[in-house]
Amino acid sequence: MNRVSYTLDSTLESVNKVEQTALQMASKAGFDSDECDSIGLAVREAAVNAVLHGNKYDPNKKMNVSYEMKEDSLIIKVADQGNGLKEQDVPDPLAPENLMKQSGRGIFLIRSFMDEVQIRELQPGTELTMIKHLKQEPQSENGRAQGQEKEEP
To answer: What are the structural domains, with CATH classification, of the chain?
Structure first.
């Protein structure tokens, strides 16, 4: 299974399903447990944003989620049917006026955990694409991954 897609209701139960699937896909793709946890948290934040801020828990609006495993990365997309979000409208949580706010750190966290993050306006809604690359083991001079034993005949 290299690609999985869901259309889900705007509920917290859906957020949990999105996170659990992300954890399973990340593990299957070969990420270590710390990376899996980071991916799970990033995807959970994206799903919460879609349900809470995008769809505003509207039962008539859905959240679309897709997971795609590639040879060297995991690509996860979360889309809502809300009013849309422009990338330039995402507040900087480190700006002095935002430091004491109770919310507004989701996208910041997602960007810190994932290698690439793209925000795209839809009609209606917003799609957040998150990409995490598998780390390649460094190769030694003989072409083997470092730490790999040489086979004896």
So the answer is: 3-133 (3.30.565.10)
* Most confident of the following: 43-52, 76-85, 104-113: 43-52
Identify the helix (H) or strand (E) that includes residue 146: none
* Residue 47: Cβ within 10 Å count: 28
| pLDDT higher than 80, residue 103 | no
pLDDT at 136: 74
**Strand order, beta sheet including 62-69:** 3-9, 62-69, 73-79, 126-133, 116-121
> Hey, how many other C-beta atoms are within 10 angstroms of the C-beta on 58?
14
Do 97 and 68 contact (CB within 8 A), yes or no?
no
Sign of CA dihedral 143, 148, 149, 153: negative
How is residue 140 annotated by DSSP? Answer: -
Position 108 scores a pLDDT of 79
Q: Looking up tokens 């460094």, which residue turns up?
A: 138
- For residues 74-95, one letter each, b for 16 or more C-beta atoms within 10 angstroms of the residue's C-beta and e for the rest, the string is bbbbbbbbbebbeeeeeeeeee
User: Quick check: 148 pLDDT over 60?
Assistant: no
Handedness of CA 68, 70, 28, 35 (dihedral sign): negative
Which helix (DSSP H) or strand (DSSP E) does residue 149 occupy?
none
